[in-house]
Amino acid sequence: MDNRQKVKKVVDTLLGRDQNITIKAVCTILGVCPETIRNWRCNAYVARMKNIQREQRASRKKDELYERIDKYFGERVGQLVTSPDIYTWLGVRRSVIWRTSPEMTTYIHERLVIHNQEFRLNLSDFTKC
């Protein structure tokens, strides 16, 4: 196995285990110094895989947030919900989510509007009795 294949195998292992991909981690596992990795022309590969790992983690986090948002609304049927309520419950500020995933803030807003319209509709049906 040549040196590049060794680096690839280590990086793939780190990725599979969801351990941080860094030059230092690769060097430690292979027992070489960062200069050696550079000489093997593997720095760009390690950096590329580190970015892929970052994207995968961000995607998983988004998926988890979407699940938590759906759970939040599912647990509050028949209750009025405010925007600060959901962001407090999520433990993430709206501005942070908006910067990283503006589509998620739109999703939350749309769910909020629909949820509260249904709440008000059910409330008005109740008052008619």
Could you explain how this protein is built, in words?
The structure is a single chain. With 129 residues, the protein is mainly α. It is 79% helix and 0% strand. Helix 1 runs parallel beside helix 4, helix 4 packs parallel to helix 7 and helix 6 crosses helix 7. The mean pLDDT is 93.
Keywords summarizing the entry:
129 residues; mainly alpha; 7 helices
How is this fold's topology laid out?
Elements: H1 3-17, H2 23-30, H3 34-39, H4 43-74, H5 83-90, H6 94-100, H7 102-127
Helix pairs in contact: 1-4, 4-7, 6-7
N- and C-termini, Cα separation: 79 Å
Give me the Rg, rounded.
23 Å
Q: Any idea what the shape is?
A: rod-shaped
Percent in helix: over 70%
Overall pLDDT, averaged?
93
Q: What structural class results from the helix and strand content?
A: mainly alpha
Poorly predicted runs: none
How many helical elements?
7
What is the string of helix and strand elements?
HHHHHHH
Strand content: under 5%
Largest sheet: none
Number of strands: 0
Q: What is the gist of this entry?
A:
The chain has 129 residues and is an all-alpha fold. The chain has helices spanning 3-17, 23-30, 34-39, 43-74, 83-90, 94-100, 102-127. It is rod-shaped and about 80 Å long.
